[in-house]
């Protein structure tokens, strides 16, 4: 164990030396005590704990995840004290101020600690821990289901967040006016109530961000210059997350998303937005592809955390189909190429790793078009690893209602076929130019229901005439493939690698 002379600058979880961290993991992995720490004291939800159970070293993964939020060793020391897990506290004692040692010395388990302490050698790397444990095993607390709907009146924006089924009727999609779409709240937050106050933490929540990444970190003042002091003329769009600005950084056109608290947003909601963005940083750092939105950099040192993306000069597919900003209609060949590009990106996400990465929120608002109309998949805040060629049951539903299949809404079954279904809805939008959700369609507000209500012989009447007459056979291809991708039965939907091959051969 490190001596006191070299522990003065060791404050955060991610700074904990290898030896102490590895021994702590050994102790908490025994009898799965990490589950009590994660569920009862760190307030992680059941889904997160189930995910951690699959790891070879769940405690280490838990510490990594918690450490991303700049939690300190003192905070962990306090939580272990509440757990009465004095065996673990011994390892951390030299990294916390002496005034907090009484939590260990005066604890109910100090007799065990003192017996164990007689045999502790700070210089040994062969510390043996017996199978005994000082604590009763208590199951992790699951978060009570709740309804949280982000709503922005101007954008008529609604998101499905942790909603029980009976509350989901009539929920509209998240319609975006902006270049980069506001992410829904993420699962497994670390509520403020579970954290020990720290005088050195910033009130703005930027210290919740911390990740090991090859993506550059940018000083906040550079972004202020890039946007001409956040000039309102540079605003590309607004959402629940804050504001997206156009800027010029390093002589490069960029879109800068400011993750700022707006209006009556709660502190917890803001933390969820930060957590969502952290997840996006990690994913976009690991999954790079021509059809995935490039993240150039991020900024955490200023009063407002920011993400810096490549500027998509043709906006979102949703905006382009609705001819927003007086844009030109997409031709049928352009629509075919966009559909192919989206499929290429999704099949990459589903097949590049040992486990498929499921995006979870594919929709036209999250498909961004560069200057050549090449589609880029954005907004990875809901992305999760799934099971290969199988589904897994999850505890919470996230996403946008008109793009989600029934087995996910009712059965909470997560698989790659969720993305396939959502992609099918996007194909319907490309074919018809209609929105995935429209209040004016009184009987069939959802586009899937609207198309299913038409007989096949009459489907040609739904063609988007704005695309022109040339190559209009693309319309039938999009409709047929869309129907296949949105099959009510998940097992009857194609995998995205097959969808891509089909489109690429047309």
From TrEMBL:
It catalyses: L-threonyl-[protein] + ATP = O-phospho-L-threonyl-[protein] + ADP + H(+); L-seryl-[protein] + ATP = O-phospho-L-seryl-[protein] + ADP + H(+). SMART domains: S_TKc (SM00220). GO terms for biological process: innate immune response; signal transduction. It is an enzyme of class 2 (transferase). GO terms for molecular function: ATP binding; protein serine/threonine kinase activity. The keyword Electron transport does not apply. InterPro entries: DEATH-like_dom_sf, Death_dom, Kinase-like_dom_sf, LRR_Rcpt-Like_S/T_Kinase, Pelle_death, Prot_kinase_dom, Protein_kinase_ATP_BS, Ser/Thr_kinase_AS. Residues 230-506 form the Protein kinase domain. Pfam families: Death, Pkinase. PROSITE patterns: PROTEIN_KINASE_ATP, PROTEIN_KINASE_DOM, PROTEIN_KINASE_ST. Keywords: ATP-binding, Kinase, Nucleotide-binding, Serine/threonine-protein kinase, Transferase. ATP binds at residue 257. Its EC number is 2.7.11.1. Belongs to the protein kinase superfamily. TKL Ser/Thr protein kinase family. Pelle subfamily. This is non-specific serine/threonine protein kinase. It comes from Heterotrigona itama. The lineage of its organism: Eukaryota, Metazoa, Ecdysozoa, Arthropoda, Hexapoda.
């Amino acid at each position: 164990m490190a001596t006191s002379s070299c522990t003065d600058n060791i404050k955060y979880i991610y700074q904990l030396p290898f030896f102490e961290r590895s021994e702590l993991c050994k102790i908490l992995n025994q009898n799965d005590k990490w589950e009590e720490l994660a569920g009862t004291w760190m307030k992680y939800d059941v889904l997160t704990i189930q995910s951690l159970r699959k790891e070879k070293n769940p405690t280490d993964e838990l510490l990594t995840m918690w450490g991303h939020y700049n939690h300190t060793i003192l905070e962990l020391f306090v939580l272990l004290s509440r757990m009465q897990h004095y065996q673990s506290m011994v390892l951390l004692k030299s990294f916390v101020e002496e005034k907090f040692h009484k939590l260990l010395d005066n604890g109910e388990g100090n007799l065990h600690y003192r017996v164990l302490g007689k045999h502790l050698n700070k210089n040994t790397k062969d510390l043996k821990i017996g199978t005994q444990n000082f604590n009763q095993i208590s199951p992790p607390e699951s978060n009570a289901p709740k309804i949280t709907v982000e709503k922005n009146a101007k954008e008529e924006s609604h998101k499905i967040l942790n909603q029980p089924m009976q509350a989901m009727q009539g929920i509209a999609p998240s319609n975006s006016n902006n270049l980069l779409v506001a992410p829904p709240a993420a699962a497994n937050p670390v509520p403020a109530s579970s954290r020990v106050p720290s005088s050195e933490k910033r009130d703005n929540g930027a210290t919740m961000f911390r990740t090991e990444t090859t993506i550059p970190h940018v000083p906040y003042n550079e972004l202020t210059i890039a946007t001409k002091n956040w000039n309102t003329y540079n605003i590309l769009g607004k959402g629940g997350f804050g504001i997206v600005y156009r800027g010029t950084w390093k002589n490069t056109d960029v879109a800068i998303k400011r993750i700022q608290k707006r209006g009556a947003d709660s502190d917890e909601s803001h933390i969820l937005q930060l957590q969502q963005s952290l997840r996006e940083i990690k994913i976009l750092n690991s999954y790079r592809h021509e059809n995935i939105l490039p993240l150039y950099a991020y900024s955490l040192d200023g009063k407002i955390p920011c993400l810096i993306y490549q500027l998509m000069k043709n906006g979102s597919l949703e905006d382009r189909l609705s001819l927003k900003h007086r844009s030109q209609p997409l031709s049928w060949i352009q629509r075919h190429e966009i559909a192919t590009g989206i499929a290429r990106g999704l099949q990459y996400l589903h097949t590049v790793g040992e486990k498929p990465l499921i995006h979870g929120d594919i929709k036209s608002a999250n498909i961004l078009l560069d200057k050549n109309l090449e589609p880029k998949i954005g907004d990875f805040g809901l992305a999760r690893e799934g099971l290969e060629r199988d589904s897994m049951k999850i505890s919470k539903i996230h996403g946008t209602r008109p793009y989600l299949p029934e087995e996910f809404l009712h059965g909470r079954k997560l698989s790659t076929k969720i993305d396939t279904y959502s992609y099918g809805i996007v194909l319907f939008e490309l074919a018809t130019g209609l929105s995935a959700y429209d209040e004016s369609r009184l009987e069939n507000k959802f586009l899937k229901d609207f198309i299913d209500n038409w007989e096949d012989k009459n489907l040609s009447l739904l063609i988007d005439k704005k695309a022109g007459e040339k190559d209009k056979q693309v319309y039938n291809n999009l409709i047929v493939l869309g129907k296949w991708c949105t099959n009510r039965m998940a097992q009857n939907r194609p995998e995205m690698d097959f969808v891509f091959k089909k489109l690429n051969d047309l």
